[in-house]
């Protein structure tokens, strides 16, 4: 079964597969976040893949089993929401969620055989260009990946070349529309991109620009999985001290986005991972992540969402409300994706 949900002001997504097993997750003691970069209030940025909330000490974590079993996805849930914010007239964010799932029941547990595609874009460009670019990117990516991945019978994540090809197809479509309309310089429309692929307990993340993906789990804590494609981060990667890099007047200028330039200037960041514990992912536009908002609010939002003490839809709404309360200067979009995994002990027929 394939289900698809695209941008609405309040998207109603199935929070999870039916009748998932309840996770056994003890409470986590809050730990003060560590923020590696002190950025201006209007555009906060962190070091890439920084451990923001440390994992629990060993005596608070279950002993590791003597035999390591492969992990199996037993539940996949998601919720998404976008909001225009407090100061913008138009919402230039756009998202899309596609889920292909087949849940099978066994005597001892449920097995969720699922592919998930989660896409979030933050558009830019005058005269509604950002709205056009972000929607065009999401819809092009969905169509490209339907043909090459989730619409096929092939099991597993798409490889890196398949992901890059889909992103380049989206970039090329927006870029050619800019050329056809004779848009020049800053007048060209464009968009950021964060995209998440799920297949079983395997995950891939791809991004272009400064929209972000975070994950939160009991043992690993809170991590930022993407590195902002902006001048400040580029200078840090060259060896410049963070304070010096973000003292530049152009520190928050994007170094790449979809649409303004051709494919030779689009080099997406792509990461593959395999999950060994229940994990919550959050894809977010910068209207939510500015001012270290997720780093500050994880104890009241992300942790309860992971532990099922807070429903995904309710949690995403809470994130949007916090974004409007503490930021509000930009459009705000969040997609929360929760994966529950268990050791694979099923005796297959």
**According to CATH, what is the topology?**
Phosphatase 2c, domain 1
The general outline is globular
How would you sum up the major sheet?
7 strands, antiparallel
What ranges have pLDDT less than 50 throughout 5 or more consecutive residues?
A: 17-50
Helix content: 10-25%
CATH class type: Alpha Beta
Taken as a percent bin, the fraction of beta residues is 25-35%
Alpha-carbon distance between the two ends = 23 Å
Q: How many helices?
A: 8
Kindly state the number of beta strands.
Answer: 13
| Overall pLDDT confidence | 84
Write the element-wise H/E pattern from the N-terminal end onward: EEEEEHHEEEEEHHEEHHHHE
Could you name the CATH homologous superfamily?
PPM-type phosphatase domain
Please state the CA-atom Rg, rounded to the nearest Å.
20 Å
CATH architecture title: 4-Layer Sandwich
- Give the tally of structural domains: 1
What structural category characterises the helix and strand content? alpha+beta
Can you walk me through this structure?
- The protein contains eight helices and 13 strands.
- Helix 1 (129-150) packs antiparallel against helix 2.
- It is an alpha+beta fold.
- Mean pLDDT is 84; it is low at 17-50.
- The protein has one domain: PPM-type phosphatase domain (Phosphatase 2c, domain 1, 4-Layer Sandwich), CATH 3.60.40.
- Strands 1, 4, 5, 6, 7, 8 and 11 form a seven-stranded antiparallel beta sheet that branches. A six-stranded antiparallel beta sheet has the order 2-10-9-12-13-3.
- The chain has helices spanning 129-150, 160-180, 231-237, 242-245, 286-289, 293-297, 302-306, 312-326, and strands at 2-6, 51-53, 71-83, 93-105, 110-124, 190-191, 193-199, 202-208, 212-217, 221-224, 269-274, 279-284, 332-343.
- The chain is globular and about 60 Å long.
């Amino acid at each position: 079964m394939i289900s698809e949900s695209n941008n609405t002001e309040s998207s109603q997504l199935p929070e999870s597969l039916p009748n998932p097993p309840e996770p056994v997750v003890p409470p986590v003691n809050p730990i003060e976040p560590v923020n590696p970069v002190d950025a201006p209030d209007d555009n906060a940025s962190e070091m890439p893949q920084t451990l923001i909330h440390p994992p629990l000490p060993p005596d608070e974590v279950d002993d590791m089993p003597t035999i390591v079993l492969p992990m199996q996805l037993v539940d996949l849930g998601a919720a998404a929401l976008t909001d225009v914010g407090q100061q913008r007239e138009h919402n230039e964010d756009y998202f899309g969620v596609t889920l292909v799932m087949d849940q099978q029941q066994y005597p001892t547990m449920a097995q969720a055989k699922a592919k998930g595609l989660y896409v979030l874009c933050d558009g830019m460009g005058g005269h509604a260009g950002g709205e056009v670019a972000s929607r065009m990117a999401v819809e092009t990516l969905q169509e490209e990946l339907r043909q090459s991945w989730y619409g096929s019978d092939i099991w597993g994540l798409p490889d890196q070349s398949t992901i890059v090809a889909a992103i380049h197809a989206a970039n090329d479509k927006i870029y050619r529309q800019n050329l056809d309309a004779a848009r020049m310089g800053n007048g060209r429309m464009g968009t950021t991109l964060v995209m998440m692929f799920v297949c079983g307990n395997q995950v891939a993340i791809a991004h272009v620009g400064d929209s972000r993906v975070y994950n939160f789990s009991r043992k690993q804590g809170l991590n930022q999985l993407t590195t902002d494609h902006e001048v400040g981060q580029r200078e840090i990667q060259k060896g410049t001290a963070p304070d010096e890099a973000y003292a530049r007047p152009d520190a928050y200028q994007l170094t790449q986005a979809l649409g303004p330039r051709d494919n030779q200037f689009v080099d997406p960041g792509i990461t593959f991972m395999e999950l060994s514990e229940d994990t919550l992912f959050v894809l977010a536009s910068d209207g939510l992540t500015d001012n270290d908002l997720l780093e500050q609010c994880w104890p009241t939002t992300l942790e309860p969402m992971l532990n099922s003490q807070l429903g995904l839809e309710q949690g995403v709404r809470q994130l949007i409300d916090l974004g409007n309360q503490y930021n509000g200067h930009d459009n705000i979009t969040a997609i929360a994706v929760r994966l529950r995994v268990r050791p694979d002990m099923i005796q297959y027929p």
